Amino acid sequence: MSNINESLQELMNLDGAMGACVVDYMSGMVLGMTGNGGSIDLELAAAGNAQVVKAKVATMRSLGIKGEIDDMLITLESQIHIIRPTHNHEDLFIYLVLDKSKANLALARRKVQGIESKLEI
Q1: Domain of life of the organism in this record (predicted)?
Q2: Could you tell me the fold of the domain covering 4-118?
């Protein structure tokens, strides 16, 4: 098990990592943050992505889709954003911003998955 700050620091060791945070998607509040996100305001992005997660959860419920979200990927021209709801801690997600030209998406997804499984709040 590792705490929020240790977990976020591990994510920043990924090639292309620009910023990461743990977010309560019900409130949009950031519980921990590291990195500068490049040109992105991580707190503002986290709050906006909390709305995305809430909308997806509500849509899945209304469609009767069972199961949990593994992760959500948002690819931009120069960045990749990974949003991974935590299964051990309800209403939280890990948010990672990567430089698309430097990152390895498969490795980043695996790393976020590993962090999520050992995150201690």
Answers
A1: Bacteria
A2: Beta-Lactamase (3.30.450)
